[in-house]
Amino acid sequence: MSLLEVENLSLHIGALHALRGVSFSLDAGECRALVGESGCGKSLTAMSLLGLTPPGAVFHADAFTLAGEVLPAQGSPAWRRHRGADIAMIFQNPMTALNPTQTVGAQLAESFVLHRNLGRREAMTAAVALLERLAIPQPAQRAAQYPFEFSGGMLQRVMIAMAVACRPKLLIADEPTTALDVTVQAEVLTLLAELQREQGTALLFITHDLGVVAEIADSVTVMYAGESVESGSVAQIFNRTAHPYSAALRAAVPSLKQDRRPEGIVGSPPDLRREVTGCAFAPRCRQRMAICEDTVPEFQCGEGQRVRCWRWHPDHPLRWREAENG
Amino acid sequence: MLFYIARRLLFAAFTIWFIATATFFAMHAVPGDPLTQEKAMSPAVRAQLEARYGLDKPLDEQYLLFLGNMLRGDFGISFTQENRRVNDIIREHFPISATLGLAAILIALVGGVAAGSVAAHFRNRWPDRAVIFAVIAAISLPGFVIAAMAQLLIVRLNSAVDSTWLPVAGWGGVEHVWIPALVLGLGTMAYLSRLMRASMLEVLSSDYVLAARSRGIGPWRLFWGHQLRNAILPVVTELGPSIAAITTGGFVVELIFAIPGLGRYFVQAVQQLDYTVIMGTTVFYGAFLVIVVMLVDISYGIIDPRIRLTSGRRR
């Protein structure tokens, strides 16, 4: 049994069918990357894992459990026990994700007061110790400073400190390096990987940078139009790509080694305010077939690899697959 | 920071000088003088009075005399209230206006911040609509209408419970302060709650509030620790102008509630062209407002660390 089980997650926000079936699982100590283009529902998936979907959104999931325990309904006050304690999140932009009028130490200490029942002074000591663990120089002085006095990379470390403060079982990182300088990105990734190993945390890493995926993740879930279209290990996704969208994503990455131009994906994702029938990627797919008009179930296409594409139906001529994967 | 305060003080002095000069010449440009009365005055008596008050001197000389006296903090003797010094009038009656104004601004600030926060948290639901309705009503209705309605309400209330615990007018104990202060602060409260609603909405949709919620922080802690201080910043900047509005608006409320504040003397002096009282009260109010606005600007830096630290110490 995995630590986190998400099966067929669906979310309606008004007329918008933002999530149309997201399924993945995560083991303790595992790092799963959630990839896909902007607007495909990566961040909303993360928000629903914190119970923070927009008010009025209609939520449904066949399975939605952490360590065997069913997670509360969206917006329920019962979430407060989980947030920051069992499940924590690192936000994309550290410059805006910290309260500008509170010192960094006070914001860090708040988690300890809340989830560890520490007194104000003990919490502050714990906060300073944590900053020190995250290699922030002069942690005591730094704790007394305000966010605007920090550099971007330093602040992202503070954000990470806040997220791991109470040793959560599940850590969600929503594009944690996108807002940072390239030189700082590697540093932050190394730190995340290190903490994950040290605490045995499961890490859900949201990104659209496939280079980062190869570096940090154990497994990958590819999302398209509010749906998980392919899940598998990093090796499977990169070497035995099953879904045409995953393949197209990879082809869109420029390469220094191979002498080829990056290929864009023709067309644009469907409008999720209208009900999508059949495969959402079909209009942009080069391998489209007549059956793609019908709703696609998930098929097993390798050890632990799942794909939502008719080409993996057991009755589909096998040689087609062999030819593509070389 | 010290340099900043010094510069602000210099500007303040210039502003006060400008107010004094403009008022002085505008006042003398009005036809007639303080000695003009319905009853005819014999030329001899008039000449004697003019000499006594220095009105026989050329205008530029009068101006210099006035400036000199003002620098010494002396505004002279009232024309209409015999032998009463303007300084005494201010000293006796300003504390009453100040008490009323302070109570009004406190009510406006607390009420405005509370109403704006509630409206923002319940955006587009009934508490929000109720606040917006009240705000529009309070801004649209002139102060004297609200004052009269408040008095009517007090009379009805008193007769209903058969007591006089809430006085309709007059000045004395704490019970005399609340209703006039509420009436006086109502317009400002409405304005501040609109401001607070807008800035709170912005804070509510900010990343750091979402991040704080993602750490399991409950609604009350979130409000006091993360939302209020950030949302109140624009409200604090508006406090200076608000205090000006309340002080000047105080004249009407003082008149209706029969409160012996400074506002009444201010208005009467203009009607009777009481030169010394006009100058005294105008310069005094001007200086008061200039200093209050300056203090508000300084307090802004205390609430927002970004301003405090960038203007003060350097990293």
Automatic annotation (TrEMBL), chain A:
Enzyme class, spelled out: translocase
Classification via SUPFAM superfamilies: P-loop containing nucleoside triphosphate hydrolases
Domain of life: Bacteria
Entry EC number(s): 7.4.2.9
Keywords noted in UniProt: ATP-binding, Cell membrane, Membrane, Nucleotide-binding, Transport
Membrane topology: Peripheral membrane protein
The keyword Membrane is assigned to this record: yes
ABC transporter domain location: 4-250
Catalytic activity: a dipeptide(out) + ATP + H2O = a dipeptide(in) + ADP + phosphate + H(+)
Listed transmembrane segments: none
Matching Gene3D superfamilies: P-loop containing nucleotide triphosphate hydrolases
Protein name according to UniProt: ABC-type dipeptide transporter
Taxon lineage: Bacteria, Pseudomonadati, Pseudomonadota, Gammaproteobacteria, Cellvibrionales
